[in-house]
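Example 9 (inverse folding). The structure is encoded as follows.
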């Protein structure tokens, strides 16, 4: 005969063992209990250690406001160099493609050889800011060997943008490292943690900034370092592919902070009026009821804010990328990306514009500095859905600005449908597509919507989400 009741403290209710449904419930209760106990152990995100230096929270008015578009080198550029030549470069991502751990990139959007097509499209949309990244491996194909022509090419891009009235925002690292920083024998010494990485990073940054400084004022040292380190050391998807390597995570995170601080210092030494922009991955996290002690919530909040907490003092603008909200709970972590339907994007991400408003308030109060949404956008095949998404997020910018939050810009990801990392060319994030014969960027309806938003906002001197 089964025992009917047993030890409440250890949560053994053996009388329910016969029913699958009740057994699942039992599992849930036990999981929640476990999470509660362990959750109490992890420190919640506390206030910043030091009081903020710059208390410029109050909105100083609409102008200047950067209406921008964001892109990245690997996701846009063709390689455009001969295999075996001195200029030939490889990134850690290329090694993954070779091992079939990532989809093939091809020539992406030919933005290296046909940057003028991008420029034409940007001018037509009417943006006054454009964010692009520099491919470190292209600049330094071998340790200490620099490609002067490539440096010149990036400088030319910045010059052309500037002359077209478009402010270049230059990101010095967008997820990819030169392949020579991948240690195939000792993966603990890869990328951030490679013995050559930090000194070479410093030289690379200095060279690029010296070359670009006549045209470039806004520099973002890194794109989403917090997301990249998480994906590399906890999820195990990106090099060095370590699963739940907490020590590696901590070391890489701390090194990425050092890289950021080095870069920001170098940039200001070279160009004292340069502006430093952070770009962090910050989704909006709801505290889930299956995580009563906050183990998951506190963990994801630390991932969102720890890096920024250690570099915000050097930032002139606190920039972050916002795409979706998520519940911090065991099921939501396991099922993230699998949802479909009206309230989700092609990536399976929850569409939650109001959470952007909440996030702006949270980040604004935490750092007391000017803010910028450095990426926001949606993968979808449905243009009306994209327009609705953009409009509702832009409306949150308008709302929070009217509440006094000092937002200095908004950037859409992205100009055209591009290479989306592990998903290849399937997700459609672009305001345009590319004609493969002429390389022209062909606008979707959402590009016209963005054009109208920018036009109306610039005319009226305020953010206008509903231009017509
Ligand atoms: C990254 C982009 C990426 C986009 C959409 C951002 O986190 O910076 O490289 O394409 O999200 O997933």
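The amino acid assigned to each position is listed next.
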């Amino acid at each position: 005969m089964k025992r009917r009741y047993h030890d409440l403290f250890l949560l053994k209710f053996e009388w329910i063992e016969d029913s699958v449904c009740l057994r699942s419930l039992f599992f849930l209760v036990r999981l929640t209990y476990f999470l509660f106990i362990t959750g109490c152990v992890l420190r919640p995100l506390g206030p910043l250690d030091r009081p903020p230096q710059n208390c410029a929270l109050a909105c100083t008015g609409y102008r200047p406001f950067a209406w921008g578009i964001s892109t990245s080198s690997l996701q846009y550029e063709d390689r455009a160099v001969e295999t075996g030549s001195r200029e030939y470069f490889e990134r850690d991502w290329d090694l993954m493609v070779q091992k079939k751990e990532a989809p093939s990139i091809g020539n992406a959007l030919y933005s290296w050889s046909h940057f003028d097509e991008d420029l034409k499209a940007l001018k037509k949309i009417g943006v006054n800011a454009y964010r692009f990244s520099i491919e470190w491996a292209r600049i330094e194909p071998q340790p200490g060997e620099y490609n002067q022509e490539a440096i010149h090419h990036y400088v030319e891009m910045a010059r052309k943008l500037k002359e077209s009235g478009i402010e270049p925002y230059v990101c010095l690292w967008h997820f990819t490292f030169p392949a020579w920083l991948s240690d195939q024998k000792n993966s603990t010494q890869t990328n951030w943690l490679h013995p050559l990485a930090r000194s070479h990073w410093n030289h690379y940054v200095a060279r690029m900034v010296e070359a670009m400084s006549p045209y470039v004022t806004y520099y973002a040292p890194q794109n989403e370092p917090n997301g990249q380190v998480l994906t590399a050391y906890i999820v195990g998807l990106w090099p060095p592919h370590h699963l739940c390597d907490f020590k590696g995570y901590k070391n890489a995170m701390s090194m990425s902070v050092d890289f950021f601080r080095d870069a920001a210092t170098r940039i200001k030494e070279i160009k004292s009026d340069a502006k430093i922009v952070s770009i962090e991955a910050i989704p909006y996290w709801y505290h889930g009821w299956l995580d009563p002690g906050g183990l998951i919530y506190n963990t994801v909040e630390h991932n969102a804010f720890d890096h920024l907490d250690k570099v915000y003092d050097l930032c002139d603008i606190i920039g972050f990328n916002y795409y979706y909200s998520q519940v911090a709970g065991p099921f939501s972590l396991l099922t993230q990306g699998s949802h479909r339907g009206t309230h989700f994007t092609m990536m399976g991400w929850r569409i939650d514009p109001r959470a952007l408003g909440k996030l702006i308030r949270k980040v604004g109060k935490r750092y007391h500095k000017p803010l910028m949404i450095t990426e926001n956008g949606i993968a979808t095949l449905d243009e009306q859905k994209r327009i609705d998404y953009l409009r509702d997020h832009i409306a949150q910018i308008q709302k929070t600005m009217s509440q006094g939050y000092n937002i200095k810009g908004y950037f859409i990801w992205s100009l055209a449908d591009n290479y989306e990392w592990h998903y290849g060319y399937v997700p459609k994030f672009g305001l345009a597509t590319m004609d493969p014969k002429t390389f022209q960027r062909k606008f979707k309806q959402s590009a016209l919507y963005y054009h109208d938003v920018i036009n109306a906002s610039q005319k009226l001197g305020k953010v206008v989400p509903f231009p017509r």
